[in-house]
Amino acid sequence: MSLHIEAEKGAIAETILLPGDPLRAKWISEHYLKDAVCFNTVRNMFGYTGTYNGKRISVMGTGMGIPSISIYATELITDFGVQNLIRVGSAGSYQEDVKIRDTVIAMAASSSGINKTRFNGADYAPTASFELFQKAVTTANAKHIAIKAGNVFSSDEFYADDFESYKKWADFGVLCVEMEAAGLYTVAAKHNVNALAILTISDSLVTGERTTAKERETTFKEMIEIALGLA
After folding, report:
1. What is the reported pTM?
2. What is the CATH number of the domain that holds 163?
3. What is the pLDDT of residues 147-187, one digit of tens each?
4. Where's the Nucleoside phosphorylase domain (predicted)?
5. 203 catalytic, yes or no?
């Protein structure tokens, strides 16, 4: 048991899916995992372990933002021996050709500067695990799921003072914005484990389109199918 996860040793699989929303974790366990058992309810950050196609896998919510996912990722790795951490979350598109419900795999994650403290003012470039990235592309191709891959922006703000600021990131090829991948990739690199963020576009800063909270909780299936294929 760790500070924020009440699971016993061995209750969490080596591979875990990490949606931000704990209700999405619950939905994934109910619709994809066989014989799922709840291992965490602390702060209602639900976590479950079951099997998928005969392979043991876990899923757990992480909350919103880099500080939250960094806490859970650190404890999952150091206290429970998790080796593969796969974020499955929503993102806002920065590009005209990145549409609502498109699946994006984050090869790298830019950030607002949270790593500057860790690296004494220097810029650290958090990247995905090549092993998981390669497997995700292969899995997506096998399932005939179209993907886009590239740099994403992990923002520390959801409501920015300057809405137009996204255009600078877009001009440099950043595909979309979310709030966790840079933290996850950094923690995983520190502990020499694998991490990958697979995202579904829930809204577009370009067109103003949005999905509902219920749709984000229960209908972003393609990224989940890719992630489960990595187990």
Report:
1. 0.96
2. 3.40.50.1580
3. 999 999 999 998 888 889 999 999 999 999 999 999 999 99
4. 16-220
5. yes
